[in-house]
Inverse folding.
């Protein structure tokens, strides 16, 4: 609960700052006739980019709530954390590589190196698929362990959270596929550049989400440690 | 801001915003069914929402029949009664009000009011409607599956929501949860559109602080919805998993019917936190668009600029922000730490400040205005009344010590119906009467509109005022029958019967509205482009109803805010937003 409150407060502070910046000096009732181009700053972004960032905010809230729910459940009864799966470290590494490959593609398209871009793009997608396969393998590993017990909330949360994260990556792969289908033969470089940029931002974001999830929840009982340090628990 | 000299020779080219590539439908199906035009999508949303809202209205009538005249209707059993309660609540809050305000009015008004040709992602917008429709069909399918729809109460609290013995615990609850998940996915598609359109597709000269308050209200409500719905989404998924796979997110160890269930260690309170983290902002998701719409209706029909525009915008944003840190006031009886109770009571009372500010500003806008008591204006004034009444009982319930004895009584029912059911519905009707001429090109019938208004307005008071007294007596909500209870006197039962009669009359009065809307579509008086002489851009379109693309060959350029009514020294009592300063016709006495 405290976690959600903290997060909400940060969101509110951001909104207040933005609003005050927009409106503190404006007197719409006296301003007449001024039609100077208002499309600077945020407004000069392409719609798809703003759309993506708004969507990322929604996804951030989704995972934030899951972490808060996880933290809330840790307080109940005897908490039996998920056993360590060393495979997750490898998966994390693969996801990082995937993000790096896409970033490389993005840099290449900026420099006009289309072959490098294609390699980066394909490698990024392939590595993301490897990550997803790795996650499924981790699911199966956990399912065959003695620890596995469906009513253990830690285990249920593990499947739920990794599942949702995987679904988001899968959605990203759809966008990736549409981009990848477009980069052969004669293509509109500006369009590909934008799609690639959006894909890369999304990939980095999902990597960040994964690092937070992995760091706090699945690589030991670090969330508990963090909350204790902060004095919340 | 500076004044820009403007003359014919220095023609300002319209928007530097890129002209979007519009989708060009060729067939009837492309134009009206699989349409990507925000205005058509808006009407689709509105018709679907009102159709399913009618179902919920009938359900509320059935509930009232049972409460007013218990044992008279054999087809209403305790099970069906609680199913009616559940479906009525869920449909009204989410599938009617949220969908109508954001999907309906949002789609229709945002592009027109900000001076855009369409939403920025028309295809996603179309998908949004079809996913919404699918969600509605799933929900309604609950009535036809074995066991019927879920009877968990609209809050769907576990563990009872998914335990055997609750009606609809096998099929109904799954349909409800899956339908909610789809609704949220569909809404997110639409919501991204609304936010990005407001941020990015405004026409030239339309600064954020020149937006009509309707757009501000819908914009903020959309942001709230985008950030709050994920909580409902995860809780729906977690509950589905508890039900189907036997996880224990929310399910504690339970002994039911003498044997131990498989669940253990889950936390029902966790669900309550997640649900109300969505549920409280949901109140403002419904009411912020209403705030915006009411501000515009009052300003237009009182021929006066809105009082304190900037303050109104800040209040909308402040309410939106605060709404995220008050959720646990719905959970005072769940056994929380007293310090948390104190915290949430404080934030709850603080939220009354920006809200009261808005009410003052509406009243001050009316003060010495040139008030036209048109049908939309009647609804707008009624909204202010009703919102104050409902809001004041909110102050009672926000205090922990007052809330505890009143919790789960009819007082709560009366409070939230006044503040987030009747008020937004009044705003919705006002908005429909106000924008109907733009949507169809015809006026609604004035007499029928007034009949509808007075029956609805007075009728809802006849329903909900007495309900407060029932609540103070301690009459519990959600009970199928409350007979032979010592603390409930005979007079309370008579009152219940009276409320039921009022409710049936109000329900029937809505048929007048339906008749009016349908009749006027064919036979109404032609309205012309701007029947209310309003300033905002949607009234300045070359065609009424606006064609696809909204504004003809060139986009309008905005020179002023949306509230230039009765400007001193100007011949007409309104100056549309797209009239340049040198085109304003002044009287001999002054200049604009």
């Amino acid at each position: 609960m405290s976690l959600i409150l903290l997060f909400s407060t940060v969101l509110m502070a951001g909104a207040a700052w933005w609003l005050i910046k927009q409106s503190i000096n404006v007197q719409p009732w006296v301003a007449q006739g001024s039609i100077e181009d208002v499309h600077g700053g945020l407004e000069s972004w392409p719609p798809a980019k703003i759309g993506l960032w708004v969507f990322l905010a929604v996804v951030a809230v989704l995972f934030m709530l899951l972490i808060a729910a996880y933290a809330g459940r840790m307080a109940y009864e005897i908490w039996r954390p998920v056993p360590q799966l060393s495979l997750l470290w490898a998966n994390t590494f693969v996801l990082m590589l995937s993000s790096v490959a896409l970033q490389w593609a993005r840099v290449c398209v900026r420099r006009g190196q289309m072959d490098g871009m294609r390699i980066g793009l394909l490698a990024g997608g392939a590595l993301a698929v490897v990550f997803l396969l790795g996650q499924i393998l981790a699911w199966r590993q956990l399912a065959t362990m003695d620890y596995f017990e469906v009513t253990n909330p830690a285990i249920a949360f593990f499947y739920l959270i990794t599942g949702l994260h995987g679904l988001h990556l899968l959605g990203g792969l759809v966008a990736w596929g549409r981009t990848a289908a477009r980069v052969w033969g004669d293509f509109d470089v500006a369009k590909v550049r934008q799609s690639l940029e959006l894909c890369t931002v999304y990939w980095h974001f999902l990597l960040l989400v994964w690092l937070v999830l992995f760091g706090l929840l699945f690589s030991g009982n670090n969330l508990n440690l963090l909350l204790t340090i902060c004095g919340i628990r | 801001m500076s004044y820009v000299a403007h003359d014919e020779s220095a023609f300002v080219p319209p928007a530097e915003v890129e002209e979007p590539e519009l989708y060009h439908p060729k067939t009837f199906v492309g134009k009206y069914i699989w349409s990507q035009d925000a205005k058509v999508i808006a009407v689709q949303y509105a018709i679907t929402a009102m159709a399913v809202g009618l179902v919920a209205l009938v359900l509320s009538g059935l509930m009232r029949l049972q409460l007013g005249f218990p044992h008279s209707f054999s087809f209403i059993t305790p099970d069906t009664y609680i199913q009616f309660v559940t479906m009525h609540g869920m449909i009204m809050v989410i599938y009617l009000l949220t969908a109508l305000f954001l999907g309906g009015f949002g789609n229709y008004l945002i592009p027109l009011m900000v001076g855009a040709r369409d939403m920025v992602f028309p295809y996603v917008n179309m998908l949004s409607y079809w996913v919404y429709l699918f969600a509605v069909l799933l929900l309604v399918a609950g009535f036809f599956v074995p066991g019927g729809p879920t009877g968990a109460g609209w809050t769907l609290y576990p563990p009872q929501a998914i335990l055997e013995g609750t009606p609809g615990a096998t099929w109904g609850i799954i349909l409800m949860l899956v339908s909610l998940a789809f609704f949220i996915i569909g809404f997110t598609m639409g919501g991204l559109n609304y936010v990005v359109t407001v941020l990015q597709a405004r026409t030239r000269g339309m600064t954020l602080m020149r937006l009509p308050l309707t757009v501000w209200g819908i914009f903020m409500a959309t942001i709230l919805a985008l950030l709050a719905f994920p909580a409902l989404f995860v809780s729906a998924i977690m509950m589905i998993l508890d039900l189907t796979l036997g996880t224990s997110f929310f399910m504690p160890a339970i002994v039911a019917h003498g044997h131990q269930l498989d669940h253990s260690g889950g936390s029902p309170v966790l669900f309550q936190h997640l649900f109300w983290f969505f549920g409280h902002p949901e109140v403002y998701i419904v009411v912020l668009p209403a705030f915006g719409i009411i501000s515009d209706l009052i300003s237009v029909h009182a021929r006066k600029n809105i009082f304190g525009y900037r303050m109104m915008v800040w209040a909308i944003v402040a309410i939106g922000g605060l709404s995220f840190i008050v959720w646990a006031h719905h959970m005072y009886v769940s056994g929380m730490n007293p310090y948390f109770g104190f915290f949430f009571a404080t934030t709850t009372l603080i939220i009354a400040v920006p809200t009261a500010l808005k009410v003052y500003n509406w009243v001050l806008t009316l003060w010495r205005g040139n008030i036209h008591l048109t049908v939309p204006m009647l609804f707008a004034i009624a909204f202010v009344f009703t919102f104050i009444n409902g809001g004041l009982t909110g102050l009672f319930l926000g205090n922990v010590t007052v809330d505890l004895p009143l919790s789960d009584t009819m007082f709560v029912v009366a409070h939230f119906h006044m503040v987030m059911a009747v008020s937004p519905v009044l705003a919705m009707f006002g908005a429909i009467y106000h924008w109907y001429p733009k949507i169809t090109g015809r006026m609604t019938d004035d007499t029928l509109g007034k009949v509808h208004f007075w029956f609805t307005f007075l009728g809802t008071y006849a329903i909900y005022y007495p309900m407060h007294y029932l609540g103070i007596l301690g009459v519990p909500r959600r009970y199928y029958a409350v007979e032979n209870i010592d603390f409930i006197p005979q007079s309370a039962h008579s009152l219940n019967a009276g409320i039921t009669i009022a409710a049936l009359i109000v329900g029937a009065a809505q048929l007048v509205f339906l008749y009016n809307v349908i009749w006027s579509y064919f036979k109404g008086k032609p309205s012309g482009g701007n029947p209310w002489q309003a300033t905002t851009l949607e009234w300045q379109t070359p065609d009424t109803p606006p064609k696809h693309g909204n504004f003809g060959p060139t986009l309008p350029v905005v020179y002023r805010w949306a509230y230039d009514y009765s400007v001193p020294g100007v011949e007409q009592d309104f100056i549309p937003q797209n009239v340049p300063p040198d085109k304003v016709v002044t009287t001999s006495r002054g200049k604009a």
In short: The helical segments of chain A are 2-23, 47-74, 87-111, 114-144, 153-180, 189-218, 222-230. Chain A touches chain B through 54 residues (CB under 8 Å). Residues 2-229 of chain A form a domain with the Four Helix Bundle (Hemerythrin (Met), subunit A) fold (CATH 1.20.120.80). Chain A has one domain: 2-229.
